[in-house]
Amino acid sequence: MTPYRNPVHVRPSAPPVFPTKPNSFQEKQTTCPAANRCAWVVTQNAMRIGIALLGSLLAIMGFAAPDYLGLGAPSPDHDWYGADMELMAGVLRSPEISLPRLSDAGSATYIARVINPANFSLYRNTRLPIGTRISDFLKFQGAVRDILMRYTADANRGIDLHREVAVLMCHMLSTSTQGIALVDEFVPALPEDDTYAIRMDGLKKFMHSLVLIFSAAEQSLSETKFYSKEDLSALLRAMDDSLPSLLPSFSDADRKEFSRKLSARATQFTSSHDKEAIIRMITTFHRAPSLK
User: Fold this and answer.
1) Helix and strand element counts for the chain (H, E)
2) What is the pLDDT at residue 23?
């Protein structure tokens, strides 16, 4: 793990106020025409249109990655924190900029950096104030979401990005587990002052956004026309890995619903590892104590 660098953009701050209006996943859900079911769920019908044709055209024409560094992206040779991820998201915001591709050795390094778990080193550094870490994490998570949204937008235009979308969705689940760890550390230290109720309300919305991430991944398991079997297995493993941390975010109704959905998907997967992952998740939901 890369030693902590104390970057200039990370400064001690007061404990953050979690956003109290739906300015992240909830807002995206209603304003993004390319993702009607959730903020970053790839819609099945849009995925079917033109994937084979445009994929062939890309193969014929070749893929030339732009100079991301020259466009203002951070170097991928060090850990990225909130400001770094926001810079990358800003570069990729323009639809004229070609996205990094896993099939391209030059640009794949940027995807590898986005999803590198070493980026979590700042948020695990307990020598820093919890408020500083959470504030930076919220920037980090929002930027990763924006990068994923750009990939889903291009995928909805028919560009074959199933591998990239899958790995980013898996990373969003991993990022969520890091968010839970920060919340677990943050809440006990939260002073019961005049802002306590506001912070707790924002925290509740933040926790619900994590449920939406898991829900989007579960719904994506049905996108067999877009994702490969390897993609779907990776999504399933990421869900299984993240569930123990995310479980407290689910209501009793959520747990019953996801258990039902996963049970219905059991016949979709043939790999013994995939089936075991489904059984583990169903068992986790069933054994969870009621929140009532």
Assistant:
1) 11, 0
2) 40
What per-residue confidence (pLDDT) applies to 2?
41
* pTM (predicted TM-score): 0.77
Tell me how many degrees the CA angle 113-110-123 measures, rounded to the nearest 5.
25
For the chain, which ranges sit under pLDDT 70?
Answer: 1-65, 292
Cα–Cα distance for residue pair 227/246, rounded to 1 Å: 24
Residues 6+ apart with CB under 8 A from 289: none
| Distance of alpha carbon 232 from alpha carbon 238, whole angstroms | 10
Name the residue with tokens 């067999």: 224
pLDDT confidence of residue 188: 87
d(CA 19, CA 219): 26
Specify the amino acid at residue 52: A
- Residue 64: per-residue pLDDT: 58
Rounded CA-CA distance 212/29 in Å is: 10
What is the residue whose two structure tokens read 């400064």? 11
Long-range pairs for 39-43: beta carbons < 8 A, 24 or more residues apart: 39/145, 39/149, 39/212, 39/216, 40/145, 40/148, 40/149, 40/152, 40/169, 40/172, 40/216, 41/152, 41/216, 41/219, 41/220, 42/152, 42/155, 42/156, 42/165, 42/220, 42/223, 42/226, 43/156
At residue 51, the pLDDT reads: 36
Q: Residue 1 carries which DSSP code?
A: -
Q: Residue 99 has what DSSP assignment? A: P
Fill in the DSSP letter of residue 224.
Answer: T
* Residue 100: HSE in the Cβ half-sphere, 13 Å Cα cutoff: 26
- What is the separation of C-alpha 223 from the centre of its chain, rounded to a whole number of angstroms? 17
